[in-house]
Design brief:
Elements: H1 6-16, E1 21-25, E2 28-31, H2 32-48, E3 56-60, H3 65-76, E4 80-83, H4 90-100, E5 104-108, H5 114-122, E6 129-133, E7 142-143, H6 144-148, H7 157-165, E8 171-177, E9 185-190, H8 191-205, E10 212-215, H9 222-235, E11 238-241, H10 247-257, E12 261-264, H11 266-273, E13 288-291, H12 298-306, E14 310-313, E15 315-317, E16 322-326, H13 333-338, E17 342-343, E18 348-352, E19 365-370, E20 377-378, H14 382-388, E21 395-403, E22 409-414, E23 419-421, E24 424-426, H15 428-435, E25 441-451, E26 455-464, H16 472-482, E27 491-494
Parallel strand pairs: 1-11, 3-4, 3-5, 4-8, 5-6, 6-7, 10-11, 12-13, 13-14, 26-27
Antiparallel strand pairs: 1-2, 8-9, 9-20, 15-16, 16-17, 18-19, 19-21, 21-22, 23-24, 25-26
Helix pairs in contact: 1-2, 2-3, 8-9, 10-11
């Protein structure tokens, strides 16, 4: 039976597999019982801070156990975790914080922009409490390490009452997404969304308590936090965490800890296979290799399929809580090359025309998804929600594709103006709007081109205002000041736009 609330899912796993290893990170090894205890302590601390149901808790952190503990603690009190990309500039963090308005902000002490982000938080009137992660607290801040080390009783009455008040459609996780338009909005995923999606995933992929899962993906995305973290929570599996992706360290961890599941975006697979000593690593423990998030070159897909008995090539999106299509794990590589599998039985998928009406197999149209995986909506933006979810509940993905007679999905392109660089969605409109704020820029246009490693990279054409002197270096430096590094165009061309 699928649990209806995330706290119940965690409690079930902690009671069923209390001594089983939940997390390995550097020199730490935490059992599910220890995870449960830390979650309860932090959840009570959130209650002591006055966090209410529906409040947002912001976090800026790398892939560490503290992130997972914070997410699960937020779900205990009915709060919504808001993950900020660790690569964001202060400008991007500030803009998105004003959308989400978190009452608590948590920041990794080792963040290279710690001082600047701290100053920015001081100017956010909605933030009532600040916590530092893994480091000494500045004046007025609390230390997460100290809260997790408390010996307070587990599940006190106040916390028990809050958990009992929760409902499946309460928000649990907010992920910023450009949707179809490129306008950044916070997609709110509920307990129901997450548990329905990940229960389907675990059933289809046969995740089990003996699995050991590499987790080196960012946790501000559905891939890290819903697919892998909650996948482990529901199965009792072990998460092998790396703070950041590193090709060699990834393979070392797979070999040393006998990982059974390795999921990566295509750019990560390319970098792993590019290691000159790749063949020296023992990857025989891997039973399932996963690739998703971007188009995969044929040669890379064939190599992925060669390292494990089963390979998953899936399709999904943030607004649908993660993966919605799966290939049969018995499919050969030729099937993986041409399709992203069939929709999970729990959901519905169809190809729609310009009006959203279903198209027959073989015809190209927009990929539409419906079911309990579809997000609650964009946070406090009903107009943007209506643009992407129609009156019948169909989510319009902005991706183009077709279905064959067996229901297998082939993606053919994008209706939305977007490219994917290293697994991240990049919206040219966002880049253009930012660059056009430069006083010497009259106009600009961002396009993209294929790249052997990153998949796609941005090319920016800039027209200066009359009389201004601009160089590509000037524009790239400006981009680095206000855009996350994966959004910075690979190439800048100063020229008249045609």
């Amino acid at each position: 039976m699928v649990p209806t609330l995330l706290p119940a899912a965690l409690q079930h796993t902690a009671s069923t597999y209390p001594d089983h290893e939940a997390i390995l990170f550097e020199n730490q090894r935490l059992s599910w019982q220890q995870v449960w205890q830390q979650v309860q302590r932090l959840a009570q601390a959130f209650l002591d801070m006055g966090v209410q149901r529906g409040d947002r808790i912001g976090i800026i952190c790398t892939t560490r156990p503290e992130y997972m503990i914070t997410f699960l603690a937020a779900t205990q009190v009915g709060a919504i975790l808001v993950g900020f990309n660790i690569n964001y500039t202060v400008r991007e963090i500030t803009e998105q914080a004003h959308v989400a308005q978190p009452v608590v902000m948590m920041l990794l002490h080792a963040h290279p922009l710690f001082a600047a982000v701290r100053r920015a938080i001081k100017a956010m009137p909605f933030v009532q409490h600040c916590l530092v992660i893994h480091g000494p607290a500045p004046q007025g801040w609390g230390e997460l390490d100290a809260l997790l080390a408390q010996t307070a009783p587990i599940m006190p009455q106040q916390l028990r009452q809050r958990v009992q008040s929760l409902r499946p459609d309460d928000g649990a996780f907010m992920v910023f997404s450009g949707g179809i338009s490129g306008e950044m909005n916070g997609a709110v995923l509920s307990h129901r969304n997450i548990l329905t999606s990940i229960s389907a995933q675990n059933r289809i992929l046969n995740w089990r308590v003996s699995d050991r899962i590499i987790l080196h993906l960012p946790l501000n995305h559905v891939s890290g936090t819903t697919l892998l973290v909650i996948g482990a929570v529901l199965s009792g599996a072990t998460l092998l965490m790396l703070e950041r992706f590193h090709p060699e360290r990834t393979l070392q961890l797979v070999q040393q800890e006998k990982a059974t599941i390795l999921g990566q975006v295509p750019a990560m697979w390319v970098m792993v296979f590019s290691l000159p000593h790749f063949d020296s690593f023992d990857l025989s423990s891997v039973r399932l290799a996963i690739v998703s998030g971007a188009p995969t070159p044929a040669a890379i897909m064939r190599r992925i399929a060669s390292i494990a008995p089963a390979t998953l090539h899936a399709y999904g999106l943030t607004e649908a809580t993660g993966m919605v299509t799966y290939n049969d794990l018995r499919d050969d590589v030729e099937v993986l090359l041409r399709s992203a599998g069939r929709v999970a039985p729990e959901f519905k998928l169809r190809i729609g025309d310009e009006e959203g009406r279903p198209l027959p197999p073989g015809q190209v149209g927009e990929v539409l998804v419906s079911g309990d995986c579809v997000m609650m909506g964009y946070f406090r933006n009903a107009a943007a929600t209506r643009q992407i979810i129609d009156e019948q509940g169909w989510l319009h993905s902005g991706d183009m594709g077709k279905l064959d007679a067996s229901g297998y999905l082939t993606l053919t392109g994008r209706k939305k103006r977007m490219f994917i660089s290293g697994g991240y969605n990049v919206f040219p409109l966002e880049i253009e709007r930012y660059v056009q704020s430069h006083p010497a820029v009259a106009s600009c246009h961002c396009r993209y081109q294929p790249d052997d490693i990153m998949g796609e990279v941005g090319i920016l054409h800039v027209r200066p205002v009359p009389g201004a002197e601009l160089s590509p270096h000037d524009i790239r430096r400006y981009c680095k000041q206000g855009l996350a590094r994966y959004k910075v165009p690979r190439e800048v061309r100063i020229e008249d736009l045609v």
